[in-house]
Amino acid sequence: MKYTVAIVDDEHKNLEILAYYIASYCPQLEVVAQLSTRKSAIKYLKANPPQILFLDIVLDEGSGFDVLDAFDYSQTQIVFCTAHDEYALKAFRYQAHDYQLKPIEIKDLINTADTVIKKINANTYPANDAVGTLKNQFHSGSPKPKRV
Questions:
Q1: Least confident of 6-15, 92-101, 128-137
Q2: Where are the beta strands (DSSP E) in 28-144?
Q3: Position 147 in a domain
Q4: Domain count, the chain
Q5: Residue-level pLDDT at 40
Q6: CB under 8 Å to 104, separation ≥6 — which residues?
Q7: Which residues pair with 78 in a beta bridge?
Q8: What domain range includes position 19?
Q9: Listing from the earlier edge strand, what are the strands of the sheet with 77-82?
């Protein structure tokens, strides 16, 4: 069985490299979309939510978080791939499966693919209402917890 993957990154070279790594080292994954703008990503993902989304944080206009806010990702495993380590906590508030810093290490990509596939096969996704609750808490301005 092949698992569908979409990649969102505003740098064409990064799209090509990640797609090549996935095709070469994760044969159980199939890249069905490579999207380079926030707008094109939102349009595609609303109509075709993949099983796995590799998402950059800093995009042409806006961010990967804007993309997540615009479509229902409750049945999608999110893997952030970014050069910015300062967004890690926010990424996990969005129920991200993983957070990989560029340049992507092949062994890390393979490990992530294996664990994501296990989650998909176990039907382990954030519930729709849990995602909505998390988004509301994050955007509400309510006091942030002092510890996790």
A1: 128-137
A2: 29-35, 52-55, 77-82, 98-101
A3: no
A4: 1
A5: 96
A6: 17, 18, 21, 81
A7: 53
A8: 3-139
A9: 29-35, 3-8, 52-55, 77-82, 98-101
